[in-house]
Amino acid sequence: MNISIITIGKLKEKYLKQGIQEYLKRLSSYAKVEIIELADEKAPENLSESEMEQVKQKEGVRILAKISDDTHVIALAINGKQKSSEELAKEIDSLATYGKSKIAFVIGGSLGLSSEVMKRSNAALSFSKMTFPHQLMRLVLVEQIYRAFRIIRNEPYHK
């Protein structure tokens, strides 16, 4: 299975990079996981609604350019469906069973994802109704993907 995590913005915090690298190392025996970092759109703090949409559009174009037609896309969105770790594992296992060997998880920038990215997505996933920094979500997502593979293989993992 090939899993891409397409994300807006560069990761700066060393502790997050270390955590992500640890889970990527652990995941290497289950799947090929690639993190694709895309530039965020520079914008001032106080944006109008239309300016926010323009930022999301520009970031969305960069995201969509990295997604092939045969990829199953799961967007991380605050209004997405919340799932348990077991439900996410079941979804990943089901995709593999039915021949979907490419999955892309998409993490938008601080303003979220464009409507075009959401339309291209096959599913929207929410980790919580709370708002998290998108850099932190990268670590949480990689850990949950690792946990999913442990669940799929009936291997022990801390609950």
UniProtKB/TrEMBL annotation:
Enzyme class: transferase
Database matches in Pfam families: SPOUT_MTase
InterPro entries, per database record: Alpha/beta_knot_MTases (IPR029028), RlmH-like (IPR003742), tRNA_m1G_MTases_N (IPR029026)
Gene Ontology cellular-component annotations: cytoplasm
Gene Ontology molecular-function annotations: rRNA (pseudouridine-N3-)-methyltransferase activity
Xref: SUPFAM superfamilies: alpha/beta knot
EC numbers on record: 2.1.1.177
Entry's localization field: Cytoplasm
Keywords: Cytoplasm, Methyltransferase, rRNA processing, S-adenosyl-L-methionine, Transferase
Catalytic activity: pseudouridine(1915) in 23S rRNA + S-adenosyl-L-methionine = N(3)-methylpseudouridine(1915) in 23S rRNA + S-adenosyl-L-homocysteine + H(+)
Main location (coarse class): cytoplasm
Binding site for S-adenosyl-L-methionine: 76, 108, 127-132
Family to which the UniProt record says this protein belongs: Belongs to the RNA methyltransferase RlmH family.
Subunit structure: Homodimer.
Protein's job: Specifically methylates the pseudouridine at position 1915 (m3Psi1915) in 23S rRNA.
Record's protein name: Ribosomal RNA large subunit methyltransferase H
Source species: Priestia aryabhattai (Bacillus aryabhattai)
The organism's taxonomic lineage, starting at the top: Bacteria, Bacillati, Bacillota, Bacilli, Bacillales
Protein's gene: rlmH
